[in-house]
Records
---
Amino acid sequence: MSRRALPSRRAIDNGSIPLASSLQQKSRSSPFLTIGLVLVVAFLVIGYTYTGSGYDSEKDALNRGEGISCTAEVQRAIPILKKVYGDSMQKVLHVGPETCSVVSMLLKEEETEAWGVEPYDLEDADSSCRNLVKKGIVRVADIKFPLPYRPKSFSVVIVSDSLDYLSPKYLNKTLPDLARVSADGLVIFAGYPGQQRAKVSELSKFGRPAKLRSYSWWIRYFIQTGLEENQSASKKFEQVANKRSYRPNCQVFHLNSHS
Ligand SMILES: *[C@@H]1O[C@H](CO)[C@@H](O)[C@H](O)[C@H]1NC(C)=O
Ligand SMILES: *[C@@H]1O[C@H](CO)[C@@H](O)[C@H](O)[C@H]1NC(C)=O
């Protein structure tokens, strides 16, 4: 389920058995070797704990049996996006399920205005979320239809999860519309193929099961529909992410706004 946590867990599971047995055999012959091996084991365990700690949001989601949420990933990526888009992160629109969580987080940042579009329903919204809706900061809107905003209303538009539930026919309308309302870029968070997504019981909310598309599918799709990748933003995102050892659990694409 967890794409990144699993291989490291496996590496330790495989590694710990031979290590433990060699520990027993060699403990008679060399105490130094034993200490060395104990240190190696401790190091592996600490390493695993450390790697695991970065995926709290994902683990929380998994514990709730919800699968991976790219909206949670947006929250983790906000500091990186701020580095990449700089001043352009002052007027942000987030589109995706549980947008209130992202909008609230962005509003806590200095000099940042944020709005949200919730593509599904807000049945179980808490009071702070209902407050955002009352103020008109968060709207519920079907993203299959043009968004109720003028061109270039926002500097950066970030969309998570929702595109995974749209067929190409609707993607053809929705993606250019998201690019239309942005001025300095459109950032897409999409699931990786093979990831566990929302439960079957939530399908009525999304209308259809998620279709998780591969990296090459998306790139081909962008080319077909004339959407251009923002190469410099993609490169910068990768650089900043590497520097901070941040590995997104979702695919992240940076597209140009329509000029
Ligand atoms: C989406 O748009 C592209 C490019 O305009 C077109 O080639 C493709 O057939 C469209 N797909 C659908 C399902 O309408
Ligand atoms: C490309 O990304 C940079 C941030 O790295 C941004 O400032 C610029 O406006 C983007 N270009 C377009 C055309 O969206």
Note: The domain at 68-255 is CATH 3.40.50.150 (Rossmann fold).
---
Amino acid sequence: MTQLLHGKAPLASSVHDKRGWGHHSGSYTAAKGYRSFQALQYAAPNPAQWNFIWSYPFVPKIDFFCWTLAHRSILTGDNLKTRGMEGPSRCPLCLNEEESSIHLLLECSFSKETWQKVLLLSSGDIAIPENFKELFSSWASLSPFALNKKALLKSAWMWIPKAVCWKIWLERNRRIFREEECSSSRVASKAIAMLGEDLDANPSLVNSRPLDPQEIRWLSGFTSKALTKSAPPKPCLSKWEVRLDE
Ligand SMILES: [Zn+2]
């Protein structure tokens, strides 16, 4: 240890050694700790996906579920195998493929149908990302709408991945543990209803910019308040013929 320290800093016998943080004052602050933590490569390899999960809070247990998805740690067949639990690991939705979180929620034909039905857009308008890191970090950029200053519209869009993944997960569990099943249309309806309830329950979500007709039509698929919680459209400037001689 003395050899390591030798040449790095002057050693003075009159000063006692002490533990300190960093190279300067040695005092620790939360800001310094946070900066050091951010500098660790494994701490936040893709901040965008964590921002997506925590900056647009939906239902706490569903936010947490998405966090476990991002860590690839939900207990699908493939993960159970790595934990030494042998059993059937076929996807209960399509009965064709090995069950993994990516297959179950993003790749499965049943899930793809559910995604498209919840999006309320034409089939193929949005290509569902291939993994959760991409899904969570790029979802905002996939929006066909301008979301700035449109809090209600933005929340509807940003909550879709959470609502869809959660409802597909519940459907998977229903099939495995209760031997009951719903169609992809029914699962999509449940996701849309849950989304709408949360939009309506949050009075602070208001579109401070007016929506265009396409945005109003889309948002009305989730909530009946698309118009009442939006700024009125800008008045059209019309040319009026004014006859001063009357
Ligand atoms: Zn499947």
Note: The radius of gyration is 26 Å.
---
Amino acid sequence: MVKKSLDEVLDIVDSIPEKMCGRPQPLFLYNLSKKTKGTGEIVEIGTCAGHSAIAMSYAQIEKKGRKINTIDIAEHPELENNLKRAGVSEYVKRIVRRSSVVAATWDKPIELLFIDGDHRYNAIVVDIECWSKFVVEGGIMAFHDYPGYNGLNEAWKAVYDKVMSKPEEWRLISDREAGSIIVFEKIRQEDRVNSHWYNPYVPGTMKLGMFGMKVKYIVRNLLWSFEEFREKRKHR
Ligand SMILES: C[S@@+](CC[C@H](N)C(=O)[O-])C[C@H]1O[C@@H](n2cnc3c(N)ncnc32)[C@H](O)[C@@H]1O
């Protein structure tokens, strides 16, 4: 089969119903995948009709990288045809099972983890807890449908509680640049001391920095509860 251009592939993704909130997001995922260095697997939780799987696997085809692993609890009948149309079937390893069940026997390092499965708070927390430990240092963990402070959804809260609250471990590298995808990098051990307001000329600034981050975290959580309370009152 003649290899398709990126534009053609994005057109195919765009033609799949239930669009991924516009063309910039698949393009963004394509770029994330393109930047991988081969230090671990690429794993997606939530395959659905394949928008994101197509974008990420196409980048791997271009760079002769690795197959992406995409996990979904359900079979989506249109998926196979979508992958075929985009010409990426051979670069997509489908796993039809609950993500936490797959994680229980997973043992490979992950360089790019994209979490877009069950969007309820507890489910996202479970996905983060089961999967983030496999992400290599310098690797990426990204989430879809993260609306930010004003959106106040469960993804926001879960990401905030489990990832943003650990600034010593996860560095925010892209905050909804292309819509609702938020991206974190796992900080390398040797860089951890340098994160967050660390000044090498001022001893003790690391501790102050971490303390500051924790205070910021608590304040934002309080603001979040207040906003939620106001929203509820508005809709009473
Ligand atoms: C928002 S859709 C994913 C969209 C997809 N990334 C795309 O670009 O088209 C969420 C998917 O997660 C799947 N899902 C929900 N809970 C899951 C779980 N616990 N484990 C694996 N997949 C799950 C659903 O079946 C659904 O297909």
Note: The pocket of S-adenosylmethionine is lined by residues 20, 45-46, 48-52, 71-74, 98-99, 116-118, 123 (CB under 6 Å).
